[in-house]
Write a structure and sequence with these properties.
With 92 residues, this protein is mainly α. 82% of the residues lie in helices and 0% in strands.
Length: 92
């Protein structure tokens, strides 16, 4: 039982590390707009019905918000990005 719990904890730690690494890449590449870019990728994944991709990029966006003191986070901009991605990538 202990091994199962330890394996689950390690798996969750690796997933969180991947979110943090992707957040740092976003911050380095996109600076103040890193949060918007992560939200764009989350919206695109959602529009394409990629559930795991959506959750991954949504968590990356939350990590960007947590890690970057300069990231812009205007909800109207996020909504516009989500609407644009849904129009472009939504499957019929």
């Amino acid at each position: 039982m202990f091994r199962i719990l330890a394996a689950w904890i390690e798996k969750r730690r690796q997933i969180r590390l991947r979110w943090q690494q992707d957040a740092w890449v976003m911050i380095e590449r996109h600076g103040r707009h890193a949060y918007y870019e992560a939200q764009r990728l989350a919206a695109r994944s959602r529009a394409m019905q990629d559930r795991s991709g959506f959750w991954h990029w949504a968590k990356v966006a939350s990590e960007v918000a947590r890690l970057s003191p300069v990231a812009e986070m205007d909800l109207k901009v996020v909504q516009a990005i989500a609407d644009e991605e849904m129009r472009k990538y939504r499957r019929p």
